Amino acid sequence: MPHPHVLLSAAVSLDGFLDDTGPDRLLLSGPADFDRVDEVRASSDAILIGAGTIRADNPRLLVNSAERRRARLDAGRPEYPLKVTVSGSGDLDPAARFWHTGGDKTVYTTDTGAARAAAALHGLGVEIVAAGPELDWRTVLEHLHDVRGVRRLMVEGGGRVHTQLLRQGLADELQLVLAPLLVGEPGAPRMFGPGPYPAGRMSLVETRPVGDVVLMRYVPTAPGTGPLATAADRRWLALACELAAQCPPSETAFSVGAVVVAADGTEISRGYSRQGDPVEHAEEAALARTDPADPRLATATVYSSLEPCARRASRPAPCARLILDAGVRRVVTAWREPDTFVAGADGSGVLTAGGADVVVLPEYEEAAKAPNRHLLPPAA
Q1: What backbone torsions phi and psi does residue 20 show, to the nearest 5 degrees?
Q2: Which residue has the higher pLDDT, 187 or 279?
Q3: Which of 242, 344, 328 is nearest to 284 (CA)?
Q4: pLDDT of residue 21
Q5: Which of 82-116 are b and which e, b meaning 16 or more Cβ less than 10 Å from the residue's Cβ?
Q6: Could you tell me which of 347, 240, 248 has the C-alpha nearest to residue 304?
Q7: pLDDT, tens digit (0-9, with 9 covering 90-100), for 332-352
Q8: 57 near 22, Cβ under 8 Å?
Q9: Strand pairing partners for 105?
């Protein structure tokens, strides 16, 4: 299911400590970076922090710039982003500044925590959402996207929240500010806790000085595993949709893009329809550029803007079969193949029968259809 673009934001010292060190809080960022954070807040639909951060820091979590607030209003948006917190217990302090400043507020809690949260925050106009017997991040993100219309979510901590989102592969972007300080306190909080994280290296997409600190922006690269989609899956599928736009135009075949990605997030190959000859399919083009003996294929993911074909007249083997024969057992796609050229096509069925996991992300369907509009019937 769709979820917002999740942006994790944090400042750390040279020895890896966060800046939320309790009552004698050490501020790692300087004025220039605080202004940058204010700008990111103003660009977001919602800002999220954990209930522990509310207890420890008592933040207001506002857009401080009057000019940025006016720009939001001029664009038809609320003056302040939605403020969100998560609390499994529902144990919340009604006197905290979080509830008494800014615009709308939402609490995500468990079924048992909902009554406690509602009693604590009675009369404050706070939305309480019971997300199930346990706090499930996918449920929270889907509700924010589908019900609250949040497309960009800024997560400001704390470390437990950052850890959970990164470990589950749900963070689309990490904005990390490195401060020129050494904290040295062994008990000071770190940004991430122990546990398994997605494999591979994140990709650095920006680095720049902001006053005396350095901003580094990273995006995840390692594909998910099994049927659950991750932020990296969405990034790679978006690239496949972009590749589809490079296809030579055709009146008799779809324009499709495909990318083959190793489990550690390394791109193995890419291709698009008619890249090498007039009847070449995208998955075929991408797989032709791999080494059949590459051991990474067994744990790789193929991203294809259109469901891999199950039948074709131009080649002996359809793309679903080529994928299975290459040893790949995970495919992420945006759009089920319509009956335009092949009635009852079911590449996903062929893949599933061959032991592959097939993940469909319908939020990318429109991007996949864009270079194929001339082949589709007009929308009703």
Answers
A1: -100, 75
A2: 279
A3: 328
A4: 42
A5: bbbbbbeebebeeebebbeebeebbbbbbeebbeb
A6: 240
A7: 999 998 877 887 889 999 999
A8: no
A9: 83
141-144 CB contacts, 8 Å cutoff, 24+ apart? 141/3, 141/4, 141/6, 141/170, 142/1, 142/2, 142/3, 143/108, 144/3, 144/4, 144/46, 144/84
- Residue 314, token pair as written in the block: 């131009």
Q: Is the pTM of this model over 0.85?
A: yes
CB atoms inside a 10 Å sphere around CB 171? 25
**Nearest one of 206, 136, 123, 203 to 168, comparing CA atoms:** 136
The yes-or-no verdict on residue 23 having pLDDT over 70 is no
Burial class (CB in 10 A: 0-12, 13-18, 19+), 242: middle
Q: Which two tokens stand for residue 326?
A: 């290459």
Mention every residue, 6+ apart, whose C-beta is less than 8 A from residue 57: 20, 25
Residue that has been written with the tokens 């009847």 in this structure: 279
339 vs 124, higher pLDDT: 124
Please name the residue that has the structure tokens 């720009």: 71
Higher pLDDT, 378 or 320: 320
Mean pLDDT, all residues of the chain: 93
Report the sign of the C-alpha dihedral through residues 89, 90, 96, 102, in that order.
Answer: positive
Helices (H), 184-318: 231-244, 282-288
Burial letters for 180-219: b for 16+ Cβ neighbours within 10 Å, e otherwise? Answer: ebebeeeebbbbbeeeeebebebeeeeeeebbebebbbbb
Distances (CA, A) of 309 to 150, 340, 345: 34, 12, 7
- Tokens 């469901």 correspond to what residue? 307
Q: What's the full length of the chain, in residues?
A: 380
Q: What is the pLDDT of residue 379?
A: 64
> What kind and span of H or E run contains 163?
helix 159-167
